[in-house]
Protein: Alpha amylase inhibitor
Amino acid sequence: MRTLRPSAAVPAAAFLLSLGLPALAAQAPAAALPAGNAPSCVTVWEKVGTVTKTGYARNDCGYTLNLKIVWSHGTDGSCHTVRPGHTISSKVPRGIRGFDGANRC
Structure:
C-alpha cells in the first residue's frame, strides 16, 4: 500500500482548498460504511473473530422497529422486533460474507 508523506499531503489539501472544496480537503480516507435501509438512529457495527464474524444493530430510536442484519453473498439474519435500547445480532462464518448493516423488515 502506498502512503503519502506528510509533506506531500499538505500541498494536496491546499490545492483542494484553493478549488473551494474544504470538505474534501478535511476528509481522511475512510472504510466504506455499512449500508442498509434502517433509520439513522439505528447503530450498526461488526466484530470479527478468528472463525466467525458477528453483525450488530442497536435501536437508538424512540420507537420499536422490525430489523434484520444484512450480509452480502448469502442469507441475511432473521427479522426481529427491537424495542428502543435493545440490540440484535447475527453470526456467520468468516470468508466472503460482508457486513452490510441493518434493514427494516
Summary: Strands lie at 42-48, 52-59, 65-72, 80-82, 87-93, 98-104. Residues 6 and 12 are 10 Å apart (CA to CA).
